[in-house]
Design brief:
354 residues; Arc Repressor Mutant, subunit A; 3-stranded antiparallel sheet; 3 domains; stress response; Heat-inducible transcription repressor HrcA; alpha+beta; repressor; Beta-Lactamase; DNA binding; single chain
């Protein structure tokens, strides 16, 4: 499939304008846009027949479609994605800015009350459903669970000691299976009592270092005897290459050490994976727009989600705000509203800088 950026670069000025006006007309009214309508709005004077030819080309590229015979055209999901990525002109209006500032910018020490106001403000201003993810907590955890959503998407469910529950979406390391995630969660839950995520990360980092030292100690004697050698020493993919395996089997003690090293390597890799899981649960993504079936998290194929993270004083992503609505959202208005709201929330939570 040709990338959207390549398609856009290969479209001439007339094709771009027809495509843009079809999308903007549909987003504004929800109705298909016909060739005769376009002849009255195009920047250059062209016939309806010429516009129909351009629309056929755009339909062939999968960017627009006819909802039924003899109708005008509406954008496809792929067309909406290309419009948002390449042609969207987003600008925050003065009235929207003032309403956001008046609601979000009020003095408030209670974070929960602030988040409630943010949700109400976004719903009222955009006439859509709001999404507010509260600041990530750094508090003791009672239970942790990893849930696979897709090969490249996973959910971590955090149950805090006070009963608060948080769900965070992250991209797991390549090749991780649902069973590996369950094992990681089981191990973490066995040592989780009274600890925060940062505590767990520090604990797992210490475990990795300890396993590494045990391996080095056991391997040292084998290497001294010339029975083994490191390959890719010090790297994640390092291996202990064993020579003279027959001699090891006769020696007894060396064979036991080799089996111990193998088990330690397995444990080391598992703990490295868990450390990476914990790191990924603290990370977030930039401003995202999910259109139609891209919005798998909510299983709402006919909807769109515009979401933006907000940061604390240390420039760490701690939560997100967003708007959910139909695929024909007014993206040019909604995107800057969500983005500006996220910036304001971040400043409110960060407090005054010295």
């Amino acid at each position: 499939m040709i990338e959207n950026a390549q398609i856009l670069s290969e479209m001439n000025h007339r094709s771009r304008e027809v495509f843009r006006r079809v999308v903007e007309g549909y987003l504004g009214t929800g109705d298909p846009v016909g060739s005769r309508t376009l002849t009255r709005t195009m920047s250059e004077k062209v016939s309806a027949a010429t516009i129909r030819n351009v629309m056929q080309d755009l339909e062939y590229l999968g960017l627009i479609q006819a909802p039924h015979i003899s109708a005008g055209r509406i954008p496809t999901q792929a067309g909406l994605r290309m419009f948002v990525d390449g042609l969207l002109e987003a600008q925050l209006g003065d009235e929207d800015r003032e309403r956001i500032e008046a609601t979000v910018g009020a003095s408030e020490d209670d974070v929960s009350a602030l988040m409630d106001r943010v949700g109400s403000a976004l719903s009222g201003i955009t006439q859509g459903a709001s999404l507010v993810l509260s600041p990530k907590r750094e508090a003791p955890i009672r239970h942790i669970e990893f849930v696979s959503l897709a090969p490249d998407r996973a959910l971590v469910v955090l149950v805090f000691a006070d009963g608060h529950v948080e769900n965070r979406v992250f991209q797991p390391p390549p090749g991780q299976t649902p069973s590996a995630m369950r094992e990681a969660a089981n191990l973490l839950n066995s040592m989780i009592e009274g600890r925060t995520i940062s505590d767990l990360k520090a604990l797992m980092t210490g475990e990795v270092a300890a396993r590494r030292r045990e391996i080095d100690t056991l391997a040292h004697d084998l290497i001294e005897k010339g029975l083994a050698v490191w390959e890719n020493a010090g790297q994640d993919g390092e291996r202990l290459i064993v020579r003279g395996r027959a001699n090891l089997l006769e020696g007894g003690t060396d064979a036991e050490n080799l089996e111990r090293i193998r088990l330690l390597f397995d444990d080391l890799e598992r703990k490295r994976d868990i450390t990476e899981f914990l790191q990924l649960t603290e990370e977030g993504e930039g401003v995202r727009i999910f259109i139609g079936s891209e919005n798998k998290l909510f299983s709402l194929s006919g909807s769109s989600l515009v979401v933006s993270p907000y940061m604390n004083a240390d420039r760490r992503i701690v939560g997100a705000v967003g708007v959910i609505g139909p695929t024909r959202l007014n993206y040019g208005r909604i995107v800057p509203i969500v983005d500006y709201t996220a910036q304001l929330v971040g400043r409110m939570l960060s407090g005054p800088r010295e």
